[in-house]
Amino acid sequence: MELKDIRKVENLKGKRVLLRSDLNVPIKDDKIINDFRLIKALETINFLRESGAKVVLMGHRGRDKKSLSLVYEYFKERISLAFAGEVLGEKTTSLVESMNDGDVVILENLRTDNREIENDNDFAKELASLADVYVNDAFSVSHREHASVVGVPKYLPSYTGILFQEEVKELSEALNPLSPSLCILGGAKFETKEPLVKKLLNVYSNVFVSGALAHHFFKSKGFNIGVSLSSDTGVDIEELVNNKKIMIPIDVVVANKDGMFVKKPNEVSNEDNIADSGPETVKKLKEIVKDFKFVLWNGPLGEYEKGFTNPTEELALALSESSAKTLIGGGDTVAAIEHLGLDDKFDFISTGGGAMLKFLLNGTLVGIEALKD
User: Fold this and answer.
1) Mean of the pLDDT values across residues 124-131?
2) Nearest to 303, CA basis, from 336, 265, 270
3) How far apart are CA 282 and CA 314, in angstroms?
4) The CATH number fitting domain 6-166+366-372, selected from 3.40.50.12780, 3.30.750.24, 3.40.50.1260, 1.10.150.170
5) Coil/strand/helix, residue 178
6) Which of 263, 189, 172, 283 is nearest to 230 (CA)?
7) Environment class of residue 30 by beta-carbon count within 10 Å: exposed (0-12), middle (13-18) or buried (19+)?
8) How confident is the model at residue 361, as a pLDDT?
9) In which band, very low, low, confident or very high, does the pLDDT at 120 lie, cut at 50, 70 and 90?
10) Is the pLDDT of residue 231 over 70?
11) CA-CA distance, 258 to 291, in Å (whole number)?
């Protein structure tokens, strides 16, 4: 897929560039606990600065309209920049108009203005008025029809950033992997991932389904899943269950009022919550990953965010030692790799979770189509 690359624009000196980056990082007790996305964002920011562009940086933080001030403080330790403290207004206009070549101004959280999520045309036009050129480097939100993603490109010459180019290149390769290949897919929301499972079965040698996704397979086999997370999708997955390329956990960790126990899937009782993949499953996975030349992994093996971390981290360690080309994505999956300090042991770590899965399913995103138009 050929997309317009900002690095191929000949003269950016003095140009005002409206840069949409992914600044949405996990924050706890007023501290950034994972700066992976910010590190990745800096490559395009620094390229534009060194090219003499005037960079108007925009992004969002979560869904709760909290300030990007902590992101500003993080960047301030690494580059010289100013914080507008608002999205649009007199201060923003004044800061942008007084910028020198190579300066950076970061706008407040876009989602503090409801018009961002509503993809309001006037809001997109106002954002566009701040600059001469638009760059989308926020692959991870480019499955969202938001003003800063699909609205602004209507009004400015538009390009992709360095990270965006890398994401599209690597994920496109994941749709044509080296053989034999393995996809490990975890998490929840089976109704949205079922079409992707079907597609990947035509692409990958094997697909291992874990986490809450596997609960649907257990149910289809007639097993009890107790009080485990599951959605009543109404989707008939008998065809998937009987597909020999599909793999599911052979044992699970359950939690109930008496504690935590390892059980076979057919041993789960009414009061059990399936919280993780079991030790035999992890052992099997660690053995078979050695047989594959390409491994795509998105989603933990269990309820990672609730403290069930060991199986996911054991798998991460095994993959880091594998000779296979490894492509990783998804918040909890990346968190496990970060926690173990294994970032440099994988061939590519995507900043996208939902966007990564959407791209794998459709081969494009609304943000990509907006740039084409």
Assistant:
1) 98
2) 336
3) 7
4) 3.40.50.1260
5) coil
6) 189
7) exposed
8) 95
9) very high
10) no
11) 39
Angle between helices 310-320 and 279-288 (to 10 degrees): 10
Q: Residue 300 in contact with residue 210, Cβ under 8 Å?
A: yes
Closest of 112, 22, 23, 110 to residue 72, by C-alpha:
23
State pTM to two decimals. 0.91
Judge whether 214 and 189 are in contact, CB under 8 Å: no
Q: What percent of the chain has pLDDT over 70?
A: 98
pLDDT beyond 80 at 358? yes
* Omega before 180 within 30 of 0, i.e. cis: yes
Q: Where does the chain have alpha helices with state H?
A: 36-50, 69-76, 90-97, 121-128, 162-174, 190-201, 211-220, 238-241, 279-288, 310-320, 331-340, 354-362, 366-372
* CATH 3.40.50.1260-classified regions of the chain: 6-166+366-372, 175-341
* Euclidean distance between the first and the last CA atom of the chain, given in angstroms as a whole number: 14
Tell me the pLDDT tens digit for each residue of 26-46.
Answer: 888 889 988 989 999 999 999
